[in-house]
Structure formats: structure tokens, C-alpha cells
Automatic annotation (TrEMBL):
Protein species of origin: Streptomyces cellostaticus
A Pfam family of this chain: PqqD
UniProt protein name: PqqD family protein
């Protein structure tokens, strides 16, 4: 079975006028600031996605990166976001 990624529903997010994302996890009481790509991933994860679908959605919106590099970067980002309890992985 393929892993499916989604936002942790308990996370409170805020988008600044300049497009920066700030996430607050009330369970850990920690804030996270997302860079541009991580913010884009957060937007896309408003719906549940497998890695391939997420990669496709992000790839359509970024320039200057090949798909295989993007997928590897997204895998690392998702692992990091999961370790911070920002995303949930449904197996």
C-alpha cells in the first residue's frame, strides 16, 4: 500500500501578506516557519496525496528543477514535516 500524506488537522496555520507560512502545533507548543516550497506543499496538502500526486502538483508550479530531484526533496521535506507532527501519513 502506498503512503498518503495529509495535514495534521490540529495544526493552526497563518499566511502572511508576503506569502510566508507560519504553523503552530498546539500539542508541542512549537511554531514553524515554512519556506516558499514548503508553503506550497502545505497548500497542496489541503487534500490527501500520495508522493507522486504531490510531486506532480508542486512540479507544475515551480521552475528550474527536474522532477526526480523535486521528488527526492519532497520526500525529505515530508519526513521532516512528519517528525514535527505537521503532516500525517496514512499507510
Amino acid at each position: 500500500m502506498t503512503a498518503r500524506y495529509r495535514r495534521n488537522d490540529q495544526i493552526i496555520d497563518r499566511v502572511e501578506p508576503d506569502g510566508e507560512y507560519f504553523l503552530f502545533n498546539p500539542i508541542t507548543a512549537k511554531f514553524n516557519k515554512l519556506n516558499r516550497i514548503a508553503g506550497l506543499v502545505w497548500e497542496v496538502l489541503g487534500e490527501t496525496h500520495e508522493l507522486d500526486g504531490l510531486t506532480d502538483a508542486v512540479f507544475k508550479r515551480v521552475k528550474g528543477v527536474d522532477r526526480s530531484t523535486l521528488e527526492a526533496d519532497l520526500r525529505r521535506l515530508l519526513d521532516d514535516m512528519e517528525s514535527r507532527d505537521l503532516v500525517v501519513v496514512d499507510a
